[in-house]
Amino acid sequence: MKYLPYKPEQIIVGFRNANQEMVKTTIESYGLTIIEKLSRFSYLVKVPVGQEKEWVRRLAQDPNVTGTQLNHIRTTRRS
Q1: With 70 as the cut, is the pLDDT of residue 77 above it?
Q2: Count of C-beta atoms within a 10 Å radius of residue 28
Q3: Distance (Å, rounded) from C-alpha 40 to C-alpha 55?
Q4: Residues 30, 72: Cα–Cα separation, whole Å
Q5: Are 7 and 73 in contact (CB under 8 A)?
Q6: pLDDT (tens digit per residue) in 8-65
Q7: Which residues pair with 72 in a beta bridge?
Q8: What is the dihedral of CA 21, 35, 42, 28, to 10 degrees?
Q9: What DSSP letter does each residue of the chain carry, written as one string?
Q10: Which residues contact 35 (CB under 8 A, 6 or more apart)?
Q11: Whole-number Cα distances in Å, 48 to 4, 36, 39, 76
């Protein structure tokens, strides 16, 4: 199994406004699903496995979106 520094099938998407209906409509128009609301403007979105980077680039072009990123895995270093 290949190690990925981010969680597969997940990206984080930030939106220009907090209108939940607009967010839902936007995500569903791409055939994607909201996993969880992270903050007032940010959502965790499910994308097809292996297509995370593609969806980060694609959704960044949407006028309703302020930013996108992979859902990075944070690790701590042991001494």
Answers
A1: no
A2: 11
A3: 21
A4: 22
A5: yes
A6: 999 999 999 989 999 999 999 999 999 999 999 999 999 999 999 999 999 999 999 9
A7: 6
A8: -40
A9: ----SEEEEEEEEEESS--HHHHHHHHHHTT-EEEEE-SSSEEEEE--TT-HHHHHHHHHTSTTEEEEEEEEPP-----
A10: 10, 43, 44, 45, 46
A11: 15, 16, 23, 28
Is residue 7 within 8 A of residue 69, CB to CB? The reply is no
CA distances from 5 to 31, 41, 64, 66 (A): 25, 24, 27, 23
> Cβ distance 10 to 17 under 8 Å?
no
